[in-house]
Specification:
The protein has a single domain, classed as Maltoporin, Chain A, CATH 2.40.170.20. About 5% of the residues lie in helices and about 55% in strands.
Length: about 750
């Protein structure tokens, strides 16, 4: 809304009830202010209205985005904030795992591949650590559902999340945002941009955030031992436009994180139940090891985006480099085991472990060493809006890094990973007439992966007692070439309504998992999975452009779906392929501008997923702590045919509402609230009574005042204001360990804009 237009519009509407001849112009402005804003997206690598793209897309920006992350939460806060999108992690603020339409990867290893691709400022972030770069000074988030195999390539079988930062312009603008809140939260964010010299614009964006430790380690007696973090990041962008035909954008970004990895809590689930029990205390853990689960990561990267207008064609080159290093350590069993002869308030003759029964202790540390990722994309696209438009290009990807796993018993083992990919792709759009448009895309991708085993069992106690030995591991290499394609048709019924149909084929390249080498196991390989997706949808702008209602139905079949069997009675991380996976469902996204003061949004998704493989067996929980509900073989492994995909919420419901009340002609009071509900979710490949959720929700609130002339906003915010305790992940190999959501938090935030 314009600074003073809102107040003037409201006054005009009131006066109009008394006289037909007063303030007609203001009444017209009122009607404009009461309509929805146009949303543009780049899902097809062209800037288009979201209503013109025959793909299921949801977006987040502005107040909705900022409120979600106001309490210092990380990228995982996107979970269940968009229909069909879920996220979780057992690695704290790094290595998030994303799921879309029920499809994702539950592998916690730092080398894991995922079927949801993260793209930041047109650069793919392949490694799970790169996916966790903090979100600040963001212009828009696009959640693009379904396979995107022609323009974006492999490892997009579930979909894409695109983050676009605010770009430099020649006009000066800046903002400063400062927030304080629960648990000692201090959140500082700002940006400044404008013209630096003739033809050169720049923008500097910064983030500095900290939260105090707030969880006690009751076993050691340490107060406020873990739970906090310190994170800083910045982004520098330089836009150089020497001619009307040439645009060059340079982006450099950096991030540093120190804090707590995931907080594992021992036996917070009772055998036979998925309800949190008396062992759960949000403010306490009982760790005998793990140094209170520290975490630290550094990441930096740069990209160079060049666009050269050749008249009839646009030539684009995107070159990028990403680097990262770091470590996470954790008390995986989530509790304590008393040393021989140890006696204190916890360690007595009758109690040698807890909370609950813990058969054996487990502590691990994972290090990401010398990650280097290089990408290069070159594409040429037709200009204009001719009957036929097209784009074609080449893509190259190269990545290398080491994953060092340090076990308290076996010692340190490092596995080196390399991945090289190249692809050629193209897409064409043809307008058959004014109403019907068809789109076709094709891509060929070649992918090659390899692992090499480096040091083994370094400083391991197991070697000293001959419980382990140095193994001979030959280099392991896999490669594959695949075609992927998509075909779409979009039919415009009228200027406010369109329908579309989409067929898309994609694949996820082979995966290699070398984590079990640390425990004298062998690497595992999953063959490439392929997906065929069928989608139909509609997009509408109704009620004089005050109601936007978009929806889609889908059905997909995955052949050789890649699965990661995590934990089980051997605490292994093994890759396998199921014969087939099937998903069916729908999504609804809506936004309604009730009037110039009230805007509401609502979204809903339904996902019905099913594994189809009558012979697939998965190891179940260790130590008999859980209650499998699947049929078991004589060794206790579960037949998982017919099970839903892991971490695939059956339903997701989201809603937001913003109500404003003008104050004279200088500002407004507002109330903003957001709600998210996650339906039934199974946490593992196999099913148990314990590791499933029955429906969880979180509620957020923001109340504030905006002063138009000062461009100033002051607001109080609350996240998880009902203080829900929601189970988000589990660890099953030892006891019933769980990971829960963030607690209720409150704070105040001030934002000042400068123009």
């Amino acid at each position: 809304m314009k600074k003073a237009a809102l107040a003037l519009s409201i006054q005009a509407a009131l006066l109009a009830s008394l006289s037909f001849n007063v303030n007609a112009q203001e009444n017209a402005q009122e009607q404009d202010d009461a309509k929805l804003e146009k949303i543009t997206v780049t899902a097809l690598k062209r800037t288009q209205s979201i209503q013109d793209v025959p793909v299921s897309i949801a977006t987040m920006s502005g107040e909705r985005f900022e409120n979600t992350f106001s309490s210092g939460d990380d990228i995982l806060s996107l979970a269940a904030r968009v229909p069909g999108l879920y996220a979780e992690s057992s690695n704290g603020r790094v290595a998030p795992r994303f799921y879309m339409r029920g499809l994702g990867n539950s592998d916690f290893d730092l080398a894991a591949s995922q079927p949801v691709s993260i793209i930041m400022d047109d650069v793919v972030m392949e490694n799970v650590v790169l996916k966790s770069f903090p979100l600040f000074d963001i212009d828009q988030v696009e959640v693009i559902r379904g396979p995107q195999g022609s323009l974006f390539g492999r490892n997009t079988t579930a979909g894409i999340i695109k983050f676009t930062s605010r770009k430099p312009t020649s006009d000066f603008d800046a903002y400063v945002k400062a927030g304080m809140g629960s648990f000692g939260l201090v959140n500082l964010e700002g940006a400044v941009g404008g013209q630096i010299a003739e033809d050169l614009n720049g923008r500097l964006s910064v983030l500095d955030q900290s939260k105090d430790d707030w969880i006690d380690n009751a076993f050691t007696g340490e107060k406020d031992a873990l739970g906090g973090h310190d994170e800083s990041a910045f982004r520098i962008q330089l836009a150089y436009n020497p001619t009307e035909d040439l645009d060059i954008l340079f982006n450099y970004h950096d991030r540093s994180l120190e804090g707590t990895s995931s907080v594992m809590r021992a036996n917070i689930l009772t055998t036979g139940s998925n309800e949190l029990n008396a062992n759960y205390d949000r403010d306490k853990v009982f760790y005998d090891d793990g140094d209170n689960n520290p975490q630290e990561y550094d990441q930096d990267g740069w990209s160079l985006n060049v666009n050269y207008d050749l008249g009839a064609y646009m030539l684009t080159s995107i070159t990028a480099m990403e680097n990262a290093d770091g470590r996470s350590k954790g008390d995986i069993d989530g509790g304590y085991i008393c040393a021989e002869g140890q006696m204190n308030s916890f360690c007595t003759a009758d109690n040698r472990n807890g909370p609950g029964f813990i058969p054996f202790g487990a502590i691990t540390e994972d290090r990401l060493n010398d990650l280097e990722q290089f990408t290069q994309e070159i594409r040429i696209a037709s200009n204009g809006n001719d009957q036929l438009t097209w784009q074609t290009g080449l893509f190259y990807f190269d990545s290398s890094f080491g994953v060092e796993s340090i076990d308290g018993f076996f010692g340190a083992t490092e596995v080196f990973h390399e991945n090289t990919t190249w692809a050629v792709f193209g897409q064409s759009t043809y307008a058959l007439n004014d109403d019907l448009t068809i789109i076709g895309g094709l891509r060929y991708t070649y992918d090659e992966k390899s692992i090499r085993v480096g040091k083994q069992n370094e400083n391991g106690f197991a070697l000293l007692i001959d419980a382990a030995s140095i193994q001979e591991y030959a280099p392991l290499d896999v490669d594959d070439g695949q075609w992927s394609w998509e075909a779409m048709a979009n039919y415009t019924i009228d200027k406010n309504m369109s329908v579309y149909a989409r067929l898309s084929n994609g694949f996820r390249a082979q995966s290699i998992q070398g984590r079990d080498v640390a425990f004298e196991g062998f690497p595992s390989v999953a063959e490439a999975e392929t997906i065929m997706s069928y989608e139909a949808g509609f997009k509408t702008d109704l009620l004089d452009n005050t109601l936007r209602l978009n929806g889609a139905v889908f059905h997909y079949v995955i052949d050789d779906i890649q699965l990661t069997a995590v934990g089980g009675n051997g605490n292994n991380v093994g890759l396998t392929n199921a014969g087939k996976g099937v998903g069916t469902g729908f999504e609804i996204d809506s936004e309604y501008r009730v009037n110039e003061n009230l805007t509401v949004t609502a979204g809903f998704s339904f996902n019905d997923t099913e594994l189809q493989d009558k012979n697939l067996l998965i190891s179940t929980c260790g130590s008999g702590a859980c209650t499998p509900t699947d049929p078991l073989n004589e060794d206790g492994a579960a037949y998982v045919d017919g099970n839903p995909f892991p971490n695939a919420p059956k339903t997701i419901f989201t809603a937001t509402a913003r109500y404003s009340m003008p104050i004279a002609d200088e500002g407004e009071l507002f109330i903003y609230s957001d709600y998210s509900h996650q339906g039934d979710t199974n946490l593992f490949i196999y099913e148990t009574e314990e590791y499933k959720t029955d429906g969880q929700f979180e509620l957020g609130l923001r109340i504030g005042y905006v002063h138009y002339d000062l461009d100033l906003e002051v607001a109080i915010f609350g996240r998880n204001i009902t203080d829900e305790d929601n189970l988000k992940a589990g660890i099953d190999f030892n006891n019933n360990t769980g990971i829960v959501n963030e607690p209720m938090s409150w704070g105040i935030e001030v934002k000042k804009n400068f123009f």
